[in-house]
Amino acid sequence: MEKALYLRDLKAQHSQGIGLSYSQAIKFHGHNGPFLALGFRIGKEIKRFLKPEGITELLAIVGIEKRKPFTCIIDGLQCSLGTTMGKGNIILRKGKGWVRVKNRKTGKAVKFKIKKEVITRCLNSQDLSQDADEILKEKGENLWFSSWSK
Fold first, then answer.
1. Between 75 and which of 29, 116, 124, 139 could a Cys-Cys bridge form, CB atoms 3.0 to 4.6 Å apart?
2. DSSP labels for 31-69?
3. Cβ(81)–Cβ(60) under 8 Å?
């Protein structure tokens, strides 16, 4: 019974374009970690700017190394943005830590470039949960460079 309520709640959130909470993202991903937190934070910031009304409006292109732990960023993005590999509105490219997202309805777009020192910090993490928590609290300007187009 509890699982059915949980799934109904998730479905309602996605139908409203809200995305998942961070605790739900951890459950989806399997553990807490800085790359998950980084993707989640970027997704929340993008969503705040692009203001999608539906779950298919956003198209995300992610440039990262195609190996763990870099790919954990994708799970964070999927959970916060609502873009998914299954829907085909998140695309993975080889890159050095960037995310571009466009609202296909409004034409607005944003690009985030993760700072090299942040990638290094995440790779050298000795306490995944603590470092993830720090990333969730950190000012965005300390984590990435961003550019917006209207």
1. 29
2. S--HHHHHHHHHHHHHHHHH--SSTTSEEEEEEE-SSTT
3. yes
